[in-house]
Design goal:
Length: about 375
């Protein structure tokens, strides 16, 4: 089956839905393609106790208030249900359960393929974000086969773990939160450099006072549209964000033992960069994700596979856009509450581009 479309949005999470909302507001036609069977499933499949770091009032997409207490951090299931309600509220055309095999170009049209289905469009928005492929170091395969290994994307709750000690590899937000949770039932080790901590705890009075100016900074000041953001962006792309909820004293109180980075395997056990080897029954890899655009067969990426773009607009491929990446335009770009402004910019760019293309067409083509 082949369909002719004005715009195809690949990805039906918050980024794709936000672009769809703004395109609909501009009267443009589009289709959102999502591999999940249900809108919001990318959130539903995260670990059970996950909460967002931002309060509910900062977790809304354009046009629809996030329900519930506005200063309470939202749960992952509340976010999933909100996204599902958002797609329904604005009647966004989402085609679910469709995994994209490739995006190619044929003259002035893009071809998005999924099995026997083909979607041809003048514009394609890659809204799959930067958290596509779970990363685990190569040496993980050398661990003893009796050790249970889970990436954070597969971890749900402590009951999944075997009896015995737990090593959590990766000390950023996911690792710290999972280590703290696991420590209630297992002796737990946390491996990795401490990335620092935010000065307040989410939900406290001090945090409620601190959050508005902080949000203004990350969503407005830390932007590629001004010199401050342009200087900050290269540094932030190589930094780990500070812990937003778990403090070092929380880990100490729970008995979590801190270790340096895990860099190898010795005699089937994980080995640290200081030479220590730990005997554990479980290894949880909180080692993050990598963008995976190998299915996009276009000249639009640098040597590391990262999209070449300006605020999501890919100049080398007119009509191609990316959204949902960390610091796409601002430091808040990859957050639910920050993606709306990027989506509006991209939607307006699409509308202006399509208007320009129609203007450039001969009168006979426009009338046809």
């Amino acid at each position: 089956m082949s369909r002719q479309l004005e715009t195809v949005i690949v990805g039906g999470g918050q980024a794709g839905l936000a672009v769809g909302y703004h395109l609909a507001q501009l009267g443009r036609s589009f289709l959102i393609l999502d591999e999940n069977e249900r809108t919001g499933d990318s959130w539903r499949t995260r670990w059970d106790s996950l909460r967002l770091f931002t309060p509910a009032y900062l977790n809304a997409l354009p046009g629809l208030r996030f329900p519930g207490p506005q200063h309470r951090p939202s749960t992952k299931d509340e976010m999933a249900d909100y996204l599902e309600a958002y797609a329904t509220r604005f009647d966004l055309p989402v085609h679910r359960g469709l995994r994209i095999d490739s995006v190619t170009r044929r003259t002035d049209r893009f071809v998005v393929s999924s099995g026997q289905d083909r979607f041809e469009a003048g514009n394609v928005v890659l809204a799959t974000g930067g958290y596509q492929t779970a990363f685990v170091p190569d040496f993980a395969g050398e661990l003893d086969t009796g050790i249970l290994q889970l990436h954070s994307s597969d971890y749900r709750r402590p009951s999944q773990l075997l009896d015995g000690d737990v090593l959590v590899v990766g000390a950023a937000n996911s690792g710290a939160e999972i280590a703290l949770e696991a420590s209630a039932t297992h002796r737990t080790w946390l491996s990795g450099r401490h990335p620092g901590s935010e000065p307040t705890r989410p939900g406290t009075v001090v945090d409620q006072l601190f959050t508005p100016p902080f949000w203004f900074f990350i969503s407005r000041v830390a932007s590629v549209t001004n010199p401050i953001g342009r200087r900050l962006r290269p540094k932030m792309l190589n930094e780990t964000l500070p812990l937003g909820r778990v403090k070092p004293e929380d880990l100490d109180a729970a008995g979590v033992v801190r270790l340096p980075r895990t860099i190898a395997v010795k005699d089937g056990a994980p080995a640290m960069e200081d030479g220590r080897v730990v005997d554990v029954a479980n290894v949880l890899w909180c080692t993050g994700y990598r963008p995976a655009f190998d299915w996009v067969h276009l000249d639009a990426f640098d040597g590391a596979g990262q999209p070449l773009h300006d605020r999501g607009v890919v100049a080398t491929q007119p009509g191609l856009y990316v959204i949902g990446l960390f610091f796409l335009a601002t430091l808040a770009s990859s957050l639910v509450g920050g993606v709306g402004r990027d989506a509006e910019y991209i939607a307006r760019h699409i509308a202006a581009r399509d208007a320009g293309l129609r203007h450039d067409q001969p009168a006979s083509a426009q009338s046809g």
